[in-house]
From TrEMBL:
Family indicated by similarity: Belongs to the fluoride channel Fluc/FEX (TC 1.A.43) family.
Membrane-crossing segments per the record: 83-103, 115-137, 149-170, 182-203
Listed name of the protein: Fluoride-specific ion channel FluC
Gene Ontology biological process: cellular detoxification of fluoride
Subcellular location: Cell membrane
Regulation of its activity: Na(+) is not transported, but it plays an essential structural role and its presence is essential for fluoride channel function.
Biological function: Fluoride-specific ion channel. Important for reducing fluoride concentration in the cell, thus reducing its toxicity.
GO cellular component: plasma membrane
Amino acid sequence: MMTNNEEIRFVKGIWQHLADLFFWLAWRKYLHLLKWAFSVIIDNELGLINLTCDGARYCITLMAPTETFSVGVFLVFKEGAKLLNIFVIALGGALGALSRYSLGLWVSTKWSHGFPLGTFIINVTGAFLLGFLNILFIERLTLSPLLRLGIGVGFLGAYTTFSTFSYEAIMLLEGGSLLTAALYTLLTVTVGFAAAALGVGLARIL
C-alpha cells in the first residue's frame, strides 16, 4: 500500500510524463514552422519575402503584397505575407512590452511621489521615437515595410500606453488629487506632442 505522499508523487509523475510527451510531440509537429521562421529573408530593397523551405514536409508560401494600407503612419500588407506580419508584430510587441515594463519598474524604484512619472516618461519617449523613426524610415532610409511594421505597430504600439495614462488620471481624480491629475494630463499631451515634433525635426536635419 502506498502512503498519501507516495500516491501524490505517483500521480504527479504520471502527469509530468504526459506533459513531456505532449510537448515532445508538439515540438516535432511544429519544428518545421520554427525552421521556417528563422529562414525568412527580408529584401530591404523591394520589401518582399523570400522563403527557403529546404524540402520541409509543410511549406508556407507567401505571395507578394498586392495592395497596402496605412495603420497610423506605417505601411501594412492587405494581401500576402499575413502570417509573417503577425510574427513580426508579435516579436516587436513582446520587446516593446518588456521595455515598457522594465522602464516603469526602474522609475518606480527612483520615484515614489503621486505623479505617475513612469508612464509619463514612457509615453513621451514613445512619441519622440515614433516621430523620429517615421521620418527616418520613410523619408531618409530604404527599409522593408515589414520592419517598419514590427517597430511602429509592434514595438512602439506595445511600448506606449494611452490606456494606463487614462486609468492613472482617473485614479488621481478619484483620490482627490485634482491638481496632479490636471497637470499629468496637460503635460502628457503637450510634452508628448512636442517630443513627436522634436523627433520629426531631428530626423530631417540628420
